[in-house]
Amino acid sequence: MELRPAALRFVLEQGLSAVIAVSGRSMEPTIPLGARVDVAPLPAGAAPAVGEIVLVATGAADVLVLHRVMHVSKDGDLVIHQGDAAGAAFATCARRDVLARMTGFADDATRVLPLPEKLSATARAQFRRRHLTCVAFARARAVARSLSVEDHALVRRCGMALRRIARRIGG
Predict the structure, then answer these.
(1) Tens of pLDDT along 87-119?
(2) In the chain, % of residues over pLDDT 70
(3) Which residue, among 59, 119, 56, has the nearest Cα to 84 in the 3D structure?
(4) How many CA atoms lie within 13 A of 84 on its CB side?
């Protein structure tokens, strides 16, 4: 049975694990379209680890994405996530929007969880480049916030430019 996003959220909020079918291509080739993956709720107050794959609630009520954690702020409140697909852009969310972590493949229990250390050398190098770009973005964002200019149009344009650069660097 396929759960709607609201129902899946409810299940995870009850502390229960679930199996979801991947309906997008943002994590290809690591996780193919149609793959069924196990997800478990992230304990309250726990920050996701850089490199793990998490289920994120987007701004749209009915949209959830499965992405890799690229950076977590020191206070744990900001998470930067990105799909593994070539040309994927990174996005930010609040920690509370990270609903679950991927714990395995439902259809193949022997398949290894795709953490960075288990990826091919090429995919690991791509992850490292993307991770460093996200760290730079987070630091620039912190500086803008400390100067109280994070809502300035020029700062937003710079953030968008950094995302475009990140797509080119990250592959």
Answers:
(1) 888 999 999 999 999 999 998 889 999 999 999
(2) 95
(3) 119
(4) 23
The sheet that has 36-41: what strands, in order across it?
18-21, 36-41, 98-105, 53-57, 64-72, 78-82, 90-94
8-state DSSP, 15: T
pLDDT of residue 2: 67
Could you tell me how far CA 126 lies from the centroid of its own chain?
A: 15
**Token pair recorded at residue 124:** 């690991």
86 and 171 Cβ atoms separated by less than 8 Å: yes
* Both tokens assigned to 39: 């997800």
In this prediction the pTM is 0.88
3-state secondary structure 52-116: CEEEEECCCCCCEEEEEEEEECCCCCEEEEECCCCCCCEEEEEHHHEEEEEEEECCCCCCCCCCH
- SS3 state at 38: strand
Q: Which residues contact 101 (CB under 8 A, 6 or more apart)?
A: 39, 40, 42, 48, 52, 53, 54, 55
Q: What is the DSSP letter of 8?
A: H
| Contacts (Cβ under 8 Å, ≥6 apart) of 148 | none
